[in-house]
Design brief:
This protein is an alpha+beta fold. The chain has 14 helices and 16 strands. It folds into two domains: 228 residues, no CATH class; 152 residues, no CATH class. The strands form three sheets. Strands 6, 7, 10, 11, 12, 13, 14, 15 and 16 form a nine-stranded antiparallel beta sheet that branches. Strands 1, 2, 3, 4 and 5 form a five-stranded mixed beta sheet that branches.
Amino acid sequence: MDVYVRGQLSDLDRKSVEPIAVASDVPPRTLQEFLSQHRWEEDRLRDRLQQKVAREHGSDHSVGLIDETSFRKKGNKTPGVKRQHCGTIGKQDNCLVTVHLGYAVDDFHCLLDGELFLPQDWSEDRHRCREAGIPDEMVYRPKTEIALELYDRARANGVQFAWMTFDEWYGGKPAFLRGLRDRQQRFVGEVPKNFLGWMDPPPLTSRPYRRGRRGRHRRTPRLRSDSRPAQTVEYWVQHDPRLRRQPWKKWRLRDGEKGPMVWETKHVRFFPQEDGLPAPQHPLLIARNVLDPSEVKYFLGHAPCNTPLSTLLLVGFSRWRVERCFEDSKGEVGLDHYEGRRYVGLKRHLILSAVSYLFLVEGKQHLRGKKPGVDGLPGADGRGGTGAVLVA
């Protein structure tokens, strides 16, 4: 383990098993066996990492970050590899996909956990799975289910999230939103422009009804026949007079690589559609890039009605932190350099990469000294400064 982690923290161009072993004068087979065959408790290592973050970086201002990343791979032996959407290059390619949970508070961020997304054709070919060391109980699951499992695991290890955020792919899945809501977790996540719902709750009925007095009763409750159908968030922004009349409010979020990030926003209450019926009321934010008005984002929140708009906006725009975790982990510790053919090796590589990255982040903090938080994000109770959010 010492050799592997030192290799991840080294200046090697490629941080897979063979270059690390050669640089350390260790037989490559030794490191391969360490990852995929030796008996050690990788789950306990992941638990200790999460417990350390909870103990030393816990805060009422914390944000949990759900996202996925992909690793381009050749061949067909690496667990989960297939031709699928590769977010790294933005198109279809031969790759594997992993779902991750990140954590951010003030100027600290890290990865807490990660799990392989097992495609359905892999799951249905158990012989291929056994060759890759994938347990029989591990089957295809939607990425949203994997994300909720990562969340539950971190909570069991004492990690508390004041807020959660995610991109529009996860935000477009009502079951995922319902899962967070059932866990009483506050969130502000991006949703796609075709996300359905109502500005005003439609009337419902619980009256039993059968067509021609035959067959089963239609399910209840259900929309009344005179109810307005659900429309997309894009439709409401373009056609609802209340939103059209509402003036845009400008905010400066933070300074990015290309200068200040200034967005203008509108917000309303919104009732998402779930299983054909209106879900509880959520705040809906519409954000438009001032420098490029064609770039519009939609954020759905789950928070008390008195939550300041600045807080919702900061949480929704916090997702860059997990993108930074991926960028640094790939560039600095070789997160995407795994070349093995066994699932347990991949799992251990993800955990060890998170450990190495946490060491780098904490080392950087220690050397730099304590600095003010980058976002000054208010806590779940709404208290605390809003720092970098300024009215333009």
